[in-house]
Specification:
The chain is an all-beta fold and 123 residues long. It is built from no helices and eleven strands. It is globular.
Amino acid sequence: QVQLVESGGGLVQPGGSLRLSCAASGLTFRLYPMAWYRRALGKQRELVAGVTRESSTNYASSVKGRFTISRDNAKNMVYLQMNSLKPEDTAVYSCAARAGSTLQPNPTEYRYWGQGTQVTVSS
């Protein structure tokens, strides 16, 4: 069975950094485009960043230049390095895997989801 397990969330001060990790199992990881989504309290789920099977990346405009997504197919891992964090980055962050060849912005396009990890940016 497919599992995506996130880790690395926590409480950080504004301007700080966190690195989120997502460990995948039960799927041929290298074939799946991967994405990080977030959902803040009272808001809709938002695509933060995505990485294709070929490791091309894209980002939401709100995080471009601050966040970096990467994948390690040998370890079945996807990462989200978050720098210069702001209070508005506070959310539950989830990784997702899409059974297709391309990234898509619509979360319904993603078949597998992790349980999420809380990121709180506050002084």
